[in-house]
């Protein structure tokens, strides 16, 4: 087979949603002042999901993976590779992908993690597509799973209101028809400082700042510019134009980034799948989560062209153009 095709999607959100008012009330106890109005007007976010302490990325990812396998109509023992995109792994090692493999019983699968922060899923899908097209694998489970609540400084209102936990997954399989049409990946390590969680483990303790830190305005500007550029690149690679795209599914960081990206591409907001208002920013989970929501509610249909886009820490960015 010349192509790889998405044959199932799944997602999972932990616990009950935490609305902006509830979050503001929790933060007020620590004298951190925020409001539903501020969060909604600046970001579009109205609620997010927060994992319990025992719910890890592999746990959330396993739920999403099972749902994707069920939709695909295949059992876990048919999977020959698992790639998990995460920046909040269960442990330094083993990889979250190995832990997820054990949870779902995918005993014949190889497993590894990809770390590209909010671009992680786009990087993982690109890798899975290449592995299938080179003939090395047939059926790949590609998962984005994150517990960014663990990285939040709950005293920093400029970041802690933005993120949420969750997982999304797709099953990608070798196919005689397209499929993934084109992929493009980029990174610029010189911009590492605008979005970091620099803490690492050394000699039994965390060295460096353990929390996520962000220069919000720098990230905003960078995100809008690179998302526009990479969309054009991946469309050109497949000889298509923005008019051929049925659905734009960008990383869900902020509704204003989605609006600015759609405008730059000349795509109407009616064609942009938006979940950030309900999920917050779930980093590598946001794109497969949004895709699964739109597949299950009937918006994304077989044969349509979808443009997936990631952007985030690193700085990293990329896109996948897919005939669903
Ligand atoms: N509640 C109330 N007030 C707040 C909050 C809050 N949660 N956070 C910041 N403020 C205040 C600030 O202190 C500032 O007050 P001041 O004027 O008295 O100094 C004021 O609001 C304005 O702050 P700005 O940082 O200028 O607000 P801005 O309009 O830039 O919005 C935001 C900030 C939402 C972070 C924006 O820059 C943004 O969306 N950036 C993109 C970053 C992003 O979405 N990152 C997600 C991760 S990256 C990724 O996934 C690609």
- Parts with pLDDT < 50 across at least 5 consecutive residues: none
CATH H-level homologous superfamily name of the largest domain = Thiolase/Chalcone synthase
CATH architecture of the largest domain: 3-Layer(aba) Sandwich
Sequence of strands across the biggest β-sheet? 1-7-6-4-5
How many β strands by DSSP?
A: 15
Report the helical percentage: 25-40%
> Structural class, from helix and strand content?
alpha+beta
- Termini separation (Å)? 17 Å
Order of helices and strands: EEHHEHEHEHEHEEEEEEHEHHHEE
Any idea of the CATH class of the largest domain?
Answer: Alpha Beta
Bin the strand percentage. 25-35%
Mean pLDDT: 97
**How many domains?**
2
Helical segment count: 10
Tell me the Rg in angstroms.
18 Å
Structure description:
This protein has 324 residues and is α+β, with helices and mostly antiparallel strands. It folds into 2 domains: 3-175, Peroxisomal Thiolase, Chain A, domain 1, CATH 3.40.47; 180-323, Peroxisomal Thiolase, Chain A, domain 1. Helices cover 33% and strands 26% of the residues. It is built from 10 helices and 15 strands. It has a 5-stranded mixed beta sheet, with helices on both faces. A 4-stranded mixed beta sheet has the order 8-15-14-13, sandwiched between helices. Helix 3 crosses helix 4 and helix 7 runs parallel beside helix 8 (255-265). The model has no long low-confidence stretch (mean pLDDT 97). Acetyl coenzyme *A is lined by residues 34, 38-39, 42-43, 118, 157-158, 161-162, 195, 214, 216-217, 219-220, 223, 251, 253-254, 281, 311-312.
